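Job type: complex structure
Entries:
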Amino acid sequence: MGAFVEIIDLNKHFPVKDQSMAFRALIPFGARKAVLRAVDGISFSIQKGETLGLVGESGCGKSTVARCILRLLPPTSGKILFEETDLAGLEEENLRFIRRDLQMIFQDPMASLNPRLSVRQVLAEPLRLHEKLTLKEREERVLEVMDQVGLDRELLNRFPHELSGGQRQRVNIARAITTRPRFIVLDEPTSALDVSLRAKIVLLLEELKSVLSTTYLFISHDLSTVKYLSDRVAVMYLGAIVEIAEAHELFRHPLHPYTKALLSAIPIPDPNVRRDRIILEGEIPSPTDIPEGCRLRGRCPVAKTTCSEEVHLREVASDHWVACHISGT
Amino acid sequence: MTGPLLQIEDLTVHFHTEEGIVEAVDGIQLLVQSGEVMGVVGESGSGKSVTALAILRLIREPGRIIQGTIQFAGRNLLGLSEEEMRTLRGSHISMIFQSPRTSLNPVLSVGWQIERLIRLHKKEHTEKARDQAIQMLRQVGIPAPERIYHEFPHQLSGGMCQRIMIAMALVTNPKLLIADEPTTGLDVSIAAQILDLLKEMGQRTGAAILLITHDLGVVAGYCDRVAVMHAGQVVESASVKKLFQNPLHPYTLKLIHSIPRVDVDTVMETIPGTVPGLIHPPPGCRFAGRCQVAREVCRKIKPQVQSINGDHQVACHHIGHW
């Protein structure tokens, strides 16, 4: 049996127009027409019931991956297999049927709710589109998911602006689970929330996963939360996956210099822990101008001449994959 | 000079809104010694930013400083005229904000923005002003400062803009730098670079830093002492080592346990409830409604700040009893 979700050589390129003032500063001289390679040939798989964490800094392409998987953006090339159906090649009409099983939770709880729909309407909408239910059944399902995410039933007729930030994110989560999806993509679901709220939402997501026996792709730049929720973690840098491993293995024995640097930058809430910081020189290059060979080459503290050769993910320990010429050999 | 650099006593700030009086900051005490990094940590709405703005007397209507004193280098800032305050801001006390790109002037080159400050505050009107500006850019780690001098904020990344802000804040050699969530919105590795730079620049120039953050990790890594704020009150303050080793306030303890860690496996706990509304806040301890050890006295009487072992202050009825 194949994987539950399998991504094979996914690419998403955006043409960058030369009139665009916003990008002109980013384009090197002599290359006025450019291609922005937001997602540049990535492959990974997710097993049923698993949570895969996808981490990386802004601009690394992690949200673009999420949008491509759900076909909110058409991928440039590659396969997106969901239970062996290729979503990348699916017609819009057929896609609608499968979307019931695929849901997404977004970062900004306010921006992702229609301000003119009440909580009841927001939660009933997916049911109206995807399931043939009587009005009564629909109302029952709405109340059921509200209980599941810990929303007071009194909020049923409220509008998004009448809710607190935490309540809004619970509505977003409730909306995503009304159709009982089998795969949920969470795009930075806790980034806009306060510390105490974050903990509550993380614990809710953890609980819901076991109640609904669903599968998560959890995207975030917050590595401590990712570590808490994920079974395996993939690290993205500049459109590519540089390392992928079981969560504890990755945090205990990071191999890729980028992963090491990223982990060393996270502040630890314990003044007695002192770590050696690994500093990457400069800033992330533009995705219109990705270096040949290893993409970290220009910033990597251990780079050698071999790093100008192309590098692919290889298995260096059991289920621990890394794309580096130097580390793990 | 003897005594603390900044000493806030009984500071109370209210916002008079249509819904009622928001008691945003309620009789807080805060101490900053020269040259130290003092952290202020708390959730949104705890009054951290309002406190920072009050120090600079930048509270705008409908906000009002109701009472208290803010002693800075021996002078009560609340007693100064607006004119005196203006000469103090930027030269003796500087501030950097959360979103560097919107805090910079979009139509002036970043180098000129620094040079203007040198001309204004140091009365330096020759070419030396430009040399100093470029020198400052170099000190905050800007590559090719002669070229970047002419760039505009929109041409630079968020991390670079925050470096420019730090350069602007420190070019006048202030004694106190207030940094209000300086790394929110920046990526982890850039955030770490900015905090390293802040700490290094603080040490190099001798400026004390008041670092406002919601991240206890940042406090542990960069601060010497810390004050924990909840619902407009300072509930606990101590040296960072003491606070993490021996947190005395139930809120501090909950806060420490509510964050997952990358280095060790922990069980994550949540803080029950939410920060109480600050219009007619609860009369007793403002944390009582969320506190698992709260008793009758906590709901009725506001706990006074007590000193434990000298420099560890806490406002809780239950010290040692829970």
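Summary: The mean pLDDT of chain A is 90. The first strand of chain A starts at residue 5 and ends at 16.
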